[in-house]
Design brief:
4 helices, 4-stranded antiparallel sheet, alpha+beta, 4 strands, 212 residues
């Protein structure tokens, strides 16, 4: 008779231990799921913050590109920056007689970085200037207007040799004289003003100018 109660007590304790183990397992699974959820949330937050940082960096780079393409402002109080070139000696385009020119040139630029950049492009710059000079005749260069025109062409040619896109200036059309009894010519249509292309070379200065 004493063995039966002991068996009953043993049978009653076994289910209690099994239920506790099940609760512990369930609690462990819930904790693991919570930890996994928290980890996934933190990872998503980190990825989103990285994407935001990359977007800001891209916007900053884009703004730097826009600023670099814009024409820099020249400080009037800053000292001028000159890039001296070795003198040019070139045969001119005169046909009747052989003439040559010896010309020294200093290029005034708007930034010291442009001056350093010119050293890399110097062979191309000198080639562009030599081609311009070789197309000129002595008559073209003896007048003050011819020298001013040459300086303008050198300014554009040297900048183009460095990769800058420089447009040609529009020709100035002088009004023709009206004859007596003739109807006045119609007024020319107004053209939209073109945006001036950026040229880092501000001026061309002559160091010497000899025509022989």
């Amino acid at each position: 008779m004493s063995a039966a109660p002991a068996a009953n007590q043993a049978d009653g304790k076994a289910p209690a231990k099994g239920s506790k183990k099940l609760i512990i397992i369930i609690v462990g699974v819930v904790v693991v799921l919570l930890l996994a959820g928290v980890g996934a949330f933190l990872l998503m937050q980190k990825n989103m913050s990285q994407q935001d940082d990359e977007g800001e960096d891209g916007a900053a780079q884009a703004s730097q590109v826009v600023e670099s393409d814009a024409k820099p402002k020249v400080d009037p109080g800053a000292p001028p920056i000159f890039v001296p070139l070795e003198p040019f000696i070139v045969n001119l385009a005169d046909r009747e007689t052989e003439r040559f020119a010896q010309i020294g040139i200093n290029l005034q630029v708007d930034d010291a970085k442009v001056g350093d950049q010119m050293k890399l492009y110097m062979p191309a710059i000198r080639n562009a200037i030599l081609l311009i000079l070789s197309r000129k005749s002595a008559e073209d260069l003896l007048t003050a207007e011819g020298k001013v025109q040459l300086a303008s062409e050198i300014q554009r040619g040297a900048a183009r040799a460095m990769g800058y896109e420089i447009e040609e200036p529009e020709p100035v059309v002088e009004p023709s004289a009206e004859g007596e009894g003739e109807e006045p010519a119609p007024a020319p249509k107004k053209r939209k003003k073109k945006v001036e292309s950026y040229n880092p070379i501000l001026q061309v200065h002559y160091a010497n100018f000899i025509i022989q």
